[in-house]
């Protein structure tokens, strides 16, 4: 009994722009399927369209996948660099009779289509006598079956049947010797050993024509799994009118990569009622039969919920790495050593309430600023002479206090009570002194994160 062939999946974007959120989900599904089975996840850059493909777009795709946390096996493969291999296979098919030379010009085809609307073009050279072939450039066309049907046994869509008389003899190699995208895809997938093709269902019609190329070469078909596209909240195909559609935009909005992986995995795939999970569970659970047939809808509220869960659950090291990636993605300067040393102790309190990284950093403002703290207008209003006098007393009382939460609270309550005030009444000037703002985390969380020396220095600055 032979062991099952190892799973090989691939992600094959065209480098003509940024990495779309739909492409990112396709890459994730392929990555999860391969990684959950000890297989390989390959990356192919489909750069045959030389007019639209750019190195910058390729780099953006690689950066997007790296930010999302998807690693691929081996080096990315350039489809354009394999053009000679694609031509070689087309010529082999010509020799085998599964393809034929077509001398019809583009103008002749256009004229035929105008005269025969809604009909599939059939080349007059398909069964022409070889003796009649002119000494002229020719395209190589697939000799596709004219009758019967081509059935795609799709792991998501079920059996999808195409009538062969509705499929033309597609061009494999143009008359200038360049391969077509449809042909190159099949040759590449075969040569790369791809066992499962997981891609958007906008490629479903392509699958029928590509299956005919597999059959013509005697190659085994991979498993096809065509996944529905992502729609906006209005049920229409996702586009810029719905807001963010590029993966880089989600990174810039401050959703951690771990949250994006969780959210995108659930966008069109489900495992029971499980909504929140980590990579290990996603890889163990992900299977093709959990993918739905209906388009998934992008829901920012749900994404924020997933994001808040992951931020709260992250270790401090993981969260600091996400913050670093966010600052890089938005072109902001990295944190310096002092900022990092104050932010890490504050994370425990901050991450319980933040839905995104910008929200967390907004609440962490106190840890990221230096002295002297410049209070905003509202905070400055709470620093009246009476409040400043109370802060002076508090500063003196804290000089020799143990720097833990219970002790800090006890000292503050004692000073407040001496003035006939509740603790809340001195919280506002404390916030102004420590953070320069009226809305902050707990004053005691801030003091613990800043430490004795910095906290007392900020209080003393106000009291001076």
From TrEMBL:
Identify the PROSITE patterns for this entry.
Answer: AA_TRNA_LIGASE_I
What is the main EC category here?
ligase
Which InterPro entries does the annotation name?
A: aa-tRNA-synth_I_cd-bd (IPR045462), aa-tRNA-synth_I_codon-bd_sub2 (IPR020751), aa-tRNA-synth_I_CS (IPR001412), aa_tRNA-synth_I_cd-bd_sf (IPR008925), Glu-tRNA-ligase_bac/mito (IPR004527), Glu/Gln-tRNA-synth (IPR000924), Glu/Gln-tRNA-synth_Ib_cat-dom (IPR020058), GluQ/Sye (IPR049940)
**Among the record's GO biological process terms, what is one?**
glutamyl-tRNA aminoacylation
UniProt function note: Catalyzes the attachment of glutamate to tRNA(Glu) in a two-step reaction: glutamate is first activated by ATP to form Glu-AMP and then transferred to the acceptor end of tRNA(Glu).
Please describe the quaternary structure of this protein.
Monomer.
Q: What is this protein called?
A: Glutamate--tRNA ligase
Natural source organism: Paracoccus sphaerophysae
Q: Which gene encodes it?
A: gltX
